[in-house]
Write a structure and sequence with these properties.
Belongs to the eIF-2B alpha/beta/delta subunits family. Residues 1-138 are annotated as: Disordered. This is Translation initiation factor eIF2B subunit delta. This protein is of the alpha/beta class. The protein is 48% helix and 9% strand. Among the domains are: 140-300, Four Helix Bundle (Hemerythrin (Met), subunit A); 312-449 and 465-510, 3-Layer(aba) Sandwich (Rossmann fold). A 7-stranded mixed beta sheet has the order 3-2-1-4-7-9-10, with helices on both faces. It starts with a helix and ends with a helix.
């Protein structure tokens, strides 16, 4: 209102510029502006719109977790700096420190829980499930410590094979007399476990199922005679007892993979015993668990395998087997009882000649059989229609771990186009992966392959140990790759070797042996 008055006062002076005092041009109304901008946009070229790249759900979740972690770290750093400053200036009481720690834990708790769920597996006992590292016998320090606490006094072999120095190589025939002299020592070992160890060492008990059943029955008797000390807890003390029994059995003969699974099952049942159980109730529960394992996982499983495998046998078939597998013998017996006409070719090998016992039993039952050694398997394979093999274990990558010579028979059958059917109980499956027969194996008595049966005059290697340049190797097991196995027949049905991880996962979920 003052500016027009000032202009009127200065009208007489023409030299003064009063353009600043002119009123501004009238403003366009709001709709006109929009109209003009729309007309300009019609003539202007379209501007490219930058679109954000589409992220997947996993990428967005990763970004959110990283942002949360950064925020939590910043808050934690700020809280720590304030706490340090306050501690430096004034000594705070303990209650303030405790409250500060609680605040930090509350801030970090959601992030920590996110990290735990994202990085760690849901199973808290993952470390317990991992198999213990195997004893490496080329480590002299560990071997000396193991000898001090061992019950079996063993002496190393003279001519050890360098490639297998990580496996135990002891002189055979020296342990049995020493153990027999200690049999009546009461505090040494439970008699049933001691007896089974002697049978392992002498070779009276052989075969995966027979060894596992004998071990579990010995543990059952030991649990029945067990009495808990007053100052001990049953779960821990009984687990330590079972571990000492297992160590003794390993010294007599290395455990098979199936025996390791049975031991893990038993220890798992011991650790899960309710604390409210009395000693007698706990012993009855464990004995029933052992009986259930033997019945369901071995006896009934073999019957289920037989029912599946018999459907693959037809009249006129020529069936080949190697060695002596108990479940394969049951298959032949059942097929013969059903009236099927077939012939069995038994392939055998030195030094155990397990096939001779199978041959006698099959012939006694009226089954037509042919007997040959493994060096002639390629000459008879053209007559064979199916190959039935047993297995000591089936590994997670579909590899079959069985008696030495199984891989040779399976490869020859594959070359001739003959299907190879491997019969194995599911409790023998293992999550281990093995690609060769060197890392893990068992060495037998080297004298067994140097002796010639029934004629000692032909034994040219009688004093082979005196020659330092001669090394004899008697391997017990070999590895058959999954490419040479047509089908696995288990108590879960007939499945390809690629489905082994599914069976292992189902067993882990049911906590049957882990």
């Amino acid at each position: 209102s003052s500016r027009p008055d000032a202009v009127s006062d200065l009208d007489d002076d023409d030299d003064i510029d009063v353009s600043w005092a002119r009123p501004p041009p009238p403003a366009f109304p709001e709709p006109n502006k929009r109209h003009l901008t729309e007309r300009k946009n019609e003539h202007a070229p379209p501007t490219p719109v930058s679109q954000k790249p589409k992220l997947s759900k996993a990428e967005r979740r990763a970004i959110q977790e990283s942002q949360r972690a950064a925020k939590a770290a910043a808050k934690e750093a700020g809280l720590k700096s304030t706490a340090m400053a306050s501690d430096a200036n004034t000594k705070q009481p303990k209650t303030a420190k405790i409250s500060l720690k609680k605040d930090v834990n509350q801030v970090n708790s959601p992030v920590a829980s996110d990290k735990k769920t994202g990085e760690r597996p849901p199973d808290k006992d993952r470390k317990k499930d991992a198999p213990q590292p195997r004893m490496q016998f080329d480590d002299t320090h560990r071997v000396v410590k193991a000898k001090k606490r061992s019950v079996v006094r063993q002496s190393e072999a003279q001519n050890r094979v360098e490639l297998f120095r990580h496996l135990p190589q002891y002189a055979h025939g020296t342990q049995l007399p020493d153990l027999e002299s200690k049999f009546f020592q009461p505090d040494l070992m439970h008699p049933s476990v001691y007896k089974v160890g002697l049978q392992y060492l002498s070779g009276d008990i052989s075969g995966g199922n027979a060894r596992c059943i004998a071990m579990l029955l010995a543990f059952r008797e030991a649990i029945n005679d067990y009495s808990m000390p007053s100052e001990k807890i049953l779960n821990r003390d009984l687990t330590a007892k079972i571990s000492s029994y297992v160590s003794f059995l390993i010294e007599c003969r290395p455990l098979s993979i199936s025996m390791g699974n049975a031991i893990r099952f038993l220890k798992n049942r011991i650790t899960k015993l309710p604390l409210a159980f009395s000693e007698s109730e706990a012993k009855v529960s464990l004995q029933s668990d052992i009986d259930r394992f033997i019945n369901e996982k071995i006896i009934v499983a073999d019957k289920v395998i037989v029912s599946h495998a018999v459907t693959k046998i037809r009249d006129g078939d020529v069936l080949l087997t190697f060695g002596s597998a108990s479940v394969v013998e049951m298959i032949f017996d059942n097929a013969h009882e059903l009236g099927k006409k077939f012939r069995v070719v038994v392939v055998d090998s030195r030094p155990n000649h397990e096939g001779q016992g199978l041959l006698r039993r099959l012939v006694a039952k009226g089954i037509s059989c042919t007997y040959t050694h493994i060096n002639a398997v390629s000459y008879i394979m053209h007559e064979v229609t199916r190959v039935f093999l047993g297995a000591s274990s089936v590994l997670s990558n579909g590899t079959v771990y069985s008696r030495v010579g199984t891989a040779l028979v399976a490869m020859v059958a594959h070359a001739f186009g003959v299907p190879v059917l491997v019969c194995c109980e599911a409790y023998k499956f293992h999550e281990r992966v093995q690609l060769d027969s060197i890392c893990f194996n068992e060495l037998g008595d080297p004298d067994a392959i140097s002796r010639v049966p029934r004629d000692e005059s032909l034994s040219n290697l009688k004093n082979w140990a005196e020659n330092e340049n001669l090394h004899l190797l008697n391997l017990k097991y070999d590895i058959t790759p999954s490419d040479y196995v047509s089908m696995l027949i288990t108590d879960y049905g007939m499945l390809p070797p690629t489905s082994v991880p599914v069976i292992v996962r189902e067993y882990r979920r049911e906590h049957v042996w882990i």
